[in-house]
Amino acid sequence: MNGRVDWVAHGVLCCGVLLFVLPLWLLLAGATQDAGAISRGELSLLPDLRNLGVFWSVLNDRAPGGAPVWHMLLVSAAMALAIAGGKIIISLLSAYAVTFFRFPFRMLCFWTIFITLMLPVEVRIVPTYAVMADFGLINSFTGLAMPLIASATATLLFRQVFVAVPDELVEAARMDGAGPLRFLRDILLPVSAANMAALFVIVFVYGWNQYLWPLLVATDPSLDTIVIGIVKMIGQDSVTDWNRVMATAVLALLPPVAVVLLMQRWFVKGLTEGEK
User: Fold this and answer.
1) Mean pLDDT of all residues in the chain?
2) SS3 label, residue 68
3) pTM for this structure?
4) Is residue 144 a contact partner of residue 217, using CB atoms and an 8 Å limit?
5) What pLDDT sits at residue 1?
6) 227 near 210, Cβ under 8 Å?
7) What is the pLDDT of residues 32-47, one digit of tens each?
8) Could you give the domains of the chain?
9) CA–CA separation, 88 and 194 (whole Å)
10) Helix axes 226-233, 69-100, angle to 10 degrees
11) What are 62's strand-pairing partners?
12) At residue 160, does pLDDT exceed 90?
């Protein structure tokens, strides 16, 4: 019976992997084929290894009225890193404050942060744009990343880690003369390192895939992200070079995949040991 259950589970997992990998494989195969054949629906499942140079040549391609692909990749990477780093720093400090400091309306502050979970970027897009416009941050990298930095989810994640810290450890640190910053640096940061790594992976991918906010706040072609660039390559009056669009999409996949693979061990550890 156990053998049957294992086979069924592995069969379901293999089907899921195939459903996920097949579009990516078609993307990779299509990037090496002729654009006309793709437009006619004659997409082959086998990549043409003679055309692998398309990935190198496409880096200098430009979206209509946009920047080169390599520049868009850099903008996306800088935006994703800024969002990930900002989220971790702000969420860490806010969770530290509501967990270890005693001040008036502390729980009100915590629940106010919690309620923002019901207000994603799409819901508050108009007032957020108005605030960025009032500060003169439209068409700036600061306006591109700043509104996406605050995160109630990350604050709750760090708070759960901090709540699990024994009171005896807090008292011992206080008796040893450790101030708030030293306690945060020497005790809380090492304890939450795995959670920070898991959060970094999630938030980096989240920032990399942003489309709606960059589309609204950055009309300057020099601030186009790679997602915006791919959309600009499609649906123009001229014939779409689908092979080059697919090659650009493959290049856009590489950075987030590399981050996930490089931090896989820390990512899994942060998700599984968050409450220990």
Assistant:
1) 84
2) strand
3) 0.85
4) yes
5) 45
6) yes
7) 888 777 777 777 788 8
8) 1-52 (no CATH), 61-272 (1.10.3720.10)
9) 12
10) 140
11) 68
12) no
